[in-house]
Amino acid sequence: MGYADLEKTEKGFLVNLDDWNEDVAKEIAAAEDLHDLSDKHWDLIKFLRDEYVNNNGNQPNERNMVKAMADIWGEKPSTKDLYTLFPMQPSKQATKIAGLPETKRKGGY
């Protein structure tokens, strides 16, 4: 079953966390005009899913994403680097591609 067939909110976020898989993520990304997900895209997507699923529904802000990616990538990215990966706001766009509920947070910090 593809993204088009899955239950979504009016903004396109998946309703059921268990509907997500990497193929669905690629379809959501394509709908967001992100057609080639790099390893860095996947690192952030997987980090967000892990935080949500294994840390009581935690949805990190962009400052915490930068810190986590520094640990994973071995170099500290800037917030701008995250926006290069997810131009429509990392805390929202990456969350959407990760199949997580929309965050209600306003800003990155």
- Tell the overall outline: globular
Q: DSSP helix count?
A: 5
CA(first)-CA(last) distance: 36 Å
The residue ranges in which pLDDT falls below 50 over 5 or more consecutive positions are none
Main location: cytoplasm
GO cellular component, one term: cytoplasm
Subcellular location: Cytoplasm
Keywords: Cytoplasm
Compile the SSE list and pairings:
Blueprint: H1 22-31, H2 39-54, H3 62-73, H4 79-85, H5 90-97
Structure notes:
The protein has one domain. It has 5 helices and no strands. The model has no long low-confidence stretch (mean pLDDT 94). It is globular. The protein is mainly alpha-helical and 109 residues long. The longest helix has 16 residues. Helix content is 49%, strand content 0%.
Keywords:
109 residues; 5 helices; single chain; mainly alpha
Question: Summed up, what is this model?
Answer:
Pfam families: DsrC (PF04358). With 109 residues, this protein is mainly alpha-helical.
